[in-house]
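PROTEIN–LIGAND DATA SHEET

This sheet pairs a single protein chain with one bound small molecule, pyridoxal-5'-phosphate, given as SMILES. Inputs appear in the order they were entered. The predicted three-dimensional arrangement of chain and ligand is reported afterwards as a token string under its own label.
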Amino acid sequence: MKIQTITDMIGNTPLLKIDDNVEYYAKIEGNNLFGSIKDRAAKYLMENAYKDGIIKKDTVIIESSSGNFGVALAGICKIKGNPFICVVDPNITESNRKIIELLGAKIVIAHKADANGSYVQNRIQIVKNYVMNYTNIYWTNQYENEYVWKAYYSLGEELRDEMEQIDYLFVAVSTCGTLAGISQKIKDYFPNCRIIAVDIVGSQIFEQSTRKKHVSGIGAGILPSNLLSAKYDDYMIIEEVDAISECNKLLSKGIIVGASSGAVAYAIQTYTGYLNDLEHKKIVAIFPDRGERYLDTIYDKEWINKIQQ
Ligand SMILES: Cc1ncc(COP(=O)(O)O)c(C=O)c1O
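PREDICTION REPORTED AS:
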């Protein structure tokens, strides 16, 4: 009998066949301990920052995140015993706020929005103020920390062991950490694989959009420097309504996921014309999280009506 420790429940997620007629698979990252792909980053970062002597037991950890990374770091900090300050914005969902607080983090809210409605600049300014004014504080800086994107090497390694061939890989982007880490490994193991980054309308990563973004998890209000470490062949920018309707379609397969998974699933449907030219082609999607935390947003008809006005 192999006894696991709690953080062994991060990684080695299931690879699920999504379509009966096409070789289309998805890594179900919602199966990680705290519910998302970000658990990999939080675990890897904290373990390596300890190993490298960057943090100690009493180091305060600080990060700007309204979502999954905040939850993941709160969980890992709770396990390790480090105090954690999570800088969020008013768009944080009630359930994420409650989980982060339940896991013992102090929440600080940024209220000043940029022109496109993103709070990221204000959130980062608040973090920088803390770092300037306190000692023994460590900003995990998910937009540019090598530990964050190296955490996703593990996804590439798992796929190497699970798949004999991958022709297309679709990855949702926000900090671009997942894309950077997984793409480096996948290009090593499957050099002919085309890697497609999937973003959402309103994000600033690939194009300067003036539209407002509402869904969380995917997209960013800044250009993350993690992108410089990514190897990708193409990108797609998906409308929020299409990502949301794809999430609802996935329900018929018993899969409850967040908008970034819906965006990736929609991108796959449209990228190659889907049914043309896909015989013997193997497609892999990364589904970054579960959908239950979005019951008041993407799975709520009133919320959807409101964002479309
Ligand atoms: C639900 C969800 N999808 C996609 C992503 C994108 O991952 P990354 O930040 O590594 O680009 C995130 C990151 O927070 C996420 O929470």
